[in-house]
Every structure is written in C-alpha cells, then in structure tokens.
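Section: Multi-chain targets

For targets with more than one molecule, the full set of components is provided together so that the structure can be written out for the assembly as a whole rather than chain by chain. Components appear in the order listed by the source. The example entry contains two components.
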Amino acid sequence: MKKILMVDDDPDIIEYLTTLFEDNGFITFAAHNVKEAMETAKREIPDLITLDLEMPEEWGPRFYRKLSQEKNLKNIPVIVISGLSGSGQAIGKAIACLQKPFDRDELLKIVKETLR
Amino acid sequence: MANEILIVDKDISHAKALGIYLERKKMNVYSAKNSDQIFKLFDKINIKIVLADPSKSDDKIISILKDIKKTYPEILIIIMSRPEDFDYCMAHLKDEAIHYLLKPVKSTALDMALKQAKSWIALNNKLRRYEKRLKVFKRTQNLFQQLFDEVPCYISVQDKDFRLTATNKKFKRDFGDEIGSHCYEVYKHRGSPCEKCPVSDTFEDALSHSTEEVVTSKSGKQYNVITWTAPIKNSLGQITQVMEMSTNITQIRQLQDHLTSLGLMIGSMSHGIKGMLTALDGGVYHLETGLANGDKKRTDRAFKQIKQMAGRMRKMVLEILYYAKSRELIYETIPIEKIAKKAAEDAMAIATKKGIRLKLNISPSLGTLQVDPNWIHASLVNILENAIDACTYDRSKEKHIVKFDVFEMSPDHICFIVKDNGMGMDQETREKMFTLFFTSKGSQGTGLGLFIANRVICQHGGTIEVDSEPGKGSCFKISLPRKKPEQFSNYDYPRKDITQNNAGESLEKTKDILSI
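Its structure, encoded as tokens over all components, is:
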C-alpha cells in the first residue's frame, strides 16, 4: 500500500485528508509543522506528500527546500493544497496545486494517477 | 522740551521780574490773570510748568491749580508764597505742588526748583514711553498667549530631561496641568523615555522632527497624534528647550483604519474562510461516507465537525458584521450557566489543541441574564481565547492554566473572571489592548477581537477590568448587569471616542484571523 504524508497545521483538514485517503486504500501520516514533516518523511519515505503553504514557524516552501536536499526524498511527488492564491508559483516542481476548498474527486484523481 | 512756563501772580511787578529772569534762562514765559485766561492758554500751548502764588486772600487760585492738576496731571506746579501764607499753601496744595519757594523768590532757589521740575518732566516722558511700549508688549504677549492656547493642537515645551516647562490650554485640558512632569509620564504613562523621541533628536541636531504616536489622556483615552518639534535657542544660539506640537488625528486614523481594515478583512476573511470550507467539506465527506456505510461513530464525528465549523463561520461573520455596520442588539433572557458553558466549550476545544488546561467554576444556580447571547458568547470566547494565547506564547513556565469563574457579584450583576498564568502585559499593552487594530501578537493578531469584546460588554452596560503583570499572567473581570440597560442600545461606526481593543488575538496564521 502506498504511503501519503499530509502536512497541514489545521487538524480538521488533516482529519479530512486522513479519512479520504484511508477510505481509498492509502496509508497516511500527518505532520502539523515542518519539523514533524521532515522527521516523518525521513522515517517513512512516503510515496506522495500533500503540503500546505502557510504554517506557523516555518512555511511549506522551506519544507520543500529541505526535502529537495535529501537524496532519498527529493523525488517524492508533492501536491500543494493551500488557501493562498497564486500558490502554484510557490513550489515550481509540485505535481499539482489545489486551492482550498479543493475538489476531493480531483485530488483523488491526481493522487491515484501519480501513485498508479 | 520743558521750556513752556506759566506765571500766575497778582503782583504784576514781581511777575514781570520773574518773566524777564526766566526768558533770560531761555524759557518761553506766559502769564495769566484769571482761570479763563489760564485754560485758554492750556488749550493752545503745551505748558509744562506753572509757577503760581496762591495768596491766602484769594482762594480762587488754589482751586484753579487743583483743576489744572486734575485736567493735566503731567503739569508740574511750583508754588511761591509769602512767609505768612506758606503753611496755608502747603496745606492746600500738598498733593499738587512739587516745590515751594518763599517770596520774594531768590534766583538760586528758583533755578533749583526749575532744574528739579525739568528732570521730573524728562523722567515722566521716559515713563510714558515705557508705559506705551509695555502696553504694546502686553498686547503682543496676550496675542501670542492666545495663539499658544487656541492653536488646535497640543503644545508643550520641554527641557533636556523631557520635563514640561510650558503647555497650552488644549494640552492642559486633555493631559492636565503637569508642569515639571516628564513628557513620557504624561503622554505615555511610562516610567522611562521613549525609544524613539523627536524631542531628543531635536536637542541633538537642532532640526525639526516628526513622528506619529499613540498617547493616553488623563481620562485614559487613546489619541493618535502627529508630532512635530522645533528647537528653542538662547541668545548664544544654544538649544535650551524644545517645543513639541502634536495634532490629534484620531478621527482621521479611525476612518483610515476602518477603510484599510475592510480591505484587510476581505483578504484575511477569504483565507480563513477557505480553511473553514475545506474543513466543512471534510465534515460533509465524513457524514456522507458514515451514512452510506452505516458507521455511527463516523456520522457522529461528522456532525460534531460540521457543528464546530458552522460555529466558527458564524462567529467570523458576526464579527465582520459588527465591525462593518452598526447593529442593534437582540436581547434574550437566557440561563447564565448555559451561556458560560457554551463559551467554555468553544474555548476548551482550542485549549485542548494547544495543551492548555481550562479550569471551570460555573455555579449552576446563577439564574438568568438579559443579553444578546450571540454577542456575549463571542465576547467571552474572545477573552478566553486571548487568555489561552497568552499561555501559548509564554515560554517561561511549563504548565499553563486558564481559570474561568462565573458568580453573582451582586443581585443585579454577574461577574465572569478569566484568569491565566500566561505571559502577562506591560502597562503600555494594558492601556492599548482595547484599541482597534492594536495587537501584541505581531502578524498573528488582527486587533479586532478584544476591541469588539470590549464594545459589546460596554454596549450591554457592563465593564471589563484588567489586572496584568508581565511574566505572571492576566485577569479579566467582566461585570454584566442582569437586565438590559436603558441607555445602551446601539453603536455606530466610526465612533467619536477612541475605540479600543485587546492585546490580542492570536490563532494560527492561516485561519480564524478575524475570530481571534
């Protein structure tokens, strides 16, 4: 089973994504900040990451930079899920950028296609 | 010139001899026999000295001399009298004459008397000139004092220690007659000079400086002011004092802030709402899948989520509405326990998430309260959340607790106490915490939450008292009347007085920006 790491500081959104992904047969890991996210990513080596941009302390783009510096993590596909407009430009290499509130079918479609 | 002299003497030969003598002394001599002649002469000639013999046998002369002195007080009178009349003359003209000579008049005595009279005249002229200048000076001084007082700004003059040496009327009205006190004590209620001080800059470089400040009046009102300074120099060109002029721009700032905030509000609102809508989608997804699979646990969780999100959105929208438009309160009579527990329940969710303990002490037998439940709920939650934030930001203690006590203060008043052992507030933050857009949480705060909470409590006829100490924590005491007050019904924005708010809301950056 494929593993998805969800990075978002809002516990309600984490809960939503967790159920959504688990209902569709994925294993999930949640991180509420960049520090937690890096630790989990190194430990679990997820197959895909969903990333919020605006979080307390460190923001999403910094996490992405840190991720890109790790050999075994830098090729993990990242989907940006953010409430910020123009978030597509924040992380150029993201495979998709979804605006909150996102369309869950669209998200599932992207995830399934990526992890096929 | 003091050369015009009038001789009044019935002894014509004596008068003539005197006239000849005085003309030789280069004086312009005039003579008169009766009062008509005398006054006609005074109308034409600027007589300075009168040399008169008021003999005892004719007291008319005495009254004429008195009239002369009354009408022309600057004229000097020298009396010449026979020895037998001398005392009589002195007794009757003691206030009018400057000198008395015995007849027949000796030239030396006359010369001395004239010399004295001339020096008196010169002195009088000098005094008159001074008097005239003094009048001009006083007029100018009054004009400047009037300008100083009536200028529509606060003016203070300060020495190098920032002590006030002069203030204008407007300053005294709003900040008190505080000559000798430090500027920072009077304007900011601080114990030490401000970090950035335009007066200090002017003392250093002799240039005018300008800053924008928030100052606190003697009645505790906050004013936004623009301040300009100007050096005051002594005759050596050294700066001895600095004048500070502050213009009250509170109303302009209020309007400007209101407009700016509407823009900001739209931005932050859209961001916050996006997060809430996503979470709401999550609730709907849980509900759909829970119902479809007959999973009661999931359905219950979904209901809870949806309810929570609806509550958050409702609170946000209410705050925006409150701020954007004047609202009429909708009073209801509700059990105090219910409103307190509902606020505590909302705050508990946040406290739990942040690892802060929320200890409740709500008596079940408090009766009812006549309030607008929506607004009172929002206000209580704001104050509770603020206490939770104060704990979250405090890194000096390991364990944090927020206590929420509700009790009857008097038969007519209910008291809500929110006490935390968080970071506390310094005096400046305490004074400004209810000011609109003031926040001590940097970009994490909006300065709306406690501003609205305070407004709502005041609108209900209640009060908020705050005790706080940096590093120790804060205590908010909210007192509310049980019944709807008659005089408080509606509030309009922009308001005339300075609006106030709290040291602030926090919450995560990306959500709840407007709902503290």
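Confidence is low (pLDDT under 50) at residues 441-446, 488-516 of chain B.
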